[in-house]
Amino acid sequence: MRAVVQIRRGKKNESAFGDRMRGCGPRWQVVEDLFNLHCQRLGFNDDERETFYDLPTTFRRPYGQLSLF
Known about the structure:
By secondary structure, this protein is mostly helical. The protein contains 2 helices and no strands. The protein has helices at residues 2-7, 26-42. The model has no long low-confidence stretch (mean pLDDT 79).
């Protein structure tokens, strides 16, 4: 709980819109750096990554069901 209070400038919560998911101080900087490092490692911020529609697929459309009717 002390870490939350430290990140929130002495408050236990923040009710202002847009400030709930932000913090301040050196501990918060470590959280942001760690998040950015993992995003970079996993390739989440790459603009050149393949989209869902560009990926090859093994899906085949079913074709035998219409003959049942």
